[in-house]
Design goal:
Pfam families: Chitin_bind_4
Order of helices and strands: HEEEEEEH
InterPro entries: CHIT_BIND_RR_consensus (IPR031311), Cuticle_Struct_Prot (IPR050468), Insect_cuticle (IPR000618)
Strand order of the largest sheet: 1-2-3-4-5-6
Strand content: 35-45%
Number of domains: 1
Keywords: Cuticle, Signal
Helix content: 10-25%
Shape: flat
Largest sheet: 6 strands, antiparallel
Distance between the termini: 44 Å
GO molecular function, one term: structural constituent of chitin-based larval cuticle
Structural class: alpha+beta
Number of strands: 6
Length: 125
């Protein structure tokens, strides 16, 4: 797990340095990893890139890692991109206004799905 935390930190630093070669790093904090597996870090450049993350080990049978964070930067078109994320044993879960969303389910399809969900389960044995 220490390897994963440090790899994530170093990867972020490399990405920042390759994307913004002339921007000074204003903030570069790293705490941990601690004995309980928790850590947190944050980095910020004068060019407006900000990324912070914290992680901990969940007390479940798998002792899975829970990671939460956010990053922000300005896209080439001038749009400020702000993404919040959570990653756990179920996958990566991003939230951001810039992310595409699926179209709504057409009413007839939704009615069919609701009907199928209302049927009793079949025993195929």
């Amino acid at each position: 797990m220490i390897y994963t935390c440090l790899t994530t930190y170093m990867l972020s630093t490399v990405v920042l340095s390759s994307c913004q070669r002339n921007d000074a790093i204003l903030r570069n904090d790293f705490d941990g990893p601690y004995a309980d597996g928790s850590y947190k870090w944050a980095i910020q450049t004068e060019g407006g890139i900000f990324h912070e993350q914290r992680g901990s080990v969940k007390a479940n049978p798998e002792h899975s890692l829970l990671v939460e964070g956010q990053y922000q930067y300005t896209a080439p078109d001038g749009q400020v991109i702000n993404l919040l994320y959570k990653a756990d044993e179920t996958g990566f879960h991003p939230v951001g206004d810039h992310l595409p969303t699926p179209p709504p389910i057409p009413p007839l399809i939704q009615r069919a799905l609701d009907y199928l969900a209302s049927l009793p389960p079949k025993d195929y044995n």
